[in-house]
Each structure stands twice: as C-alpha cells, then as structure tokens.
Design goal:
about 100 residues; alpha+beta; 4-stranded antiparallel sheet; about 35% helix; globular
Length: about 100
C-alpha cells in the first residue's frame, strides 16, 4: 500500500466557513476518484501548541494510483479553489506502508 500524508496550516483571517469547505470538498474525492482505498481527514485537536491545523491521510494500492489522485482534475480543483487561497504552510510525505 502507498500512503500520502499532508498537513496544512491556514493563513491568518481564514474563516470557519473556508475551513469547513476544505474538509467538505476533500471529503467528496473518494466518491469521485476510485483509486483511493482509504481517506481520513481532520482538524487538529489543539492539544499541543504549534501543530499544523488540518491533516489528510490517503491510501492507494500503488504509486500509480496515487499519481491518478494527485493529478485528477477534481483534486486539483479543490487545491486551487479551496486550499491555496487560505494556505499558510503545507507539509507532505508519501511512503510505502509495511515496506
């Protein structure tokens, strides 16, 4: 299995509505992109200061399936329309699970 992990911090002035829209739009992607095997996202619990504010973990059967997701027009639209306008920072990693 191939895993993609992304962490986001939102820009100052980001509204609750904008944060909710990111989660809603990302949450629709598993219905649109069949290559996604598992998809988990959520807002930081606020327990530790300095954390990123939002996380996404996506699992795929292969690197090729991840690339389909990465480049899919629906995914790219969420990034362009909902994430980039409010993004302060992003961290990401991809790795093979169990290998």
């Amino acid at each position: 299995m191939f895993r993609h992990v992304v962490l986001f911090t939102w820009a100052d002035g980001t509204t609750d509505e904008q944060r909710t829209a990111v989660a809603t739009e990302l949450g629709r992607l598993p219905e649109i992109i069949p290559e996604i095997r598992a998809y988990t996202l959520g807002t930081d619990a606020g327990v530790n200061p300095g954390n990123h504010e939002f996380a996404l973990i996506a699992d795929f059967d292969s690197v090729d399936d991840y690339l389909v997701y990465r480049d899919h027009p629906a995914h790219q639209a969420v990034i362009a329309e909902h994430i980039k306008p409010i993004l302060a920072s992003r961290a990401a990693v991809q790795y093979t699970v169990g290998g």
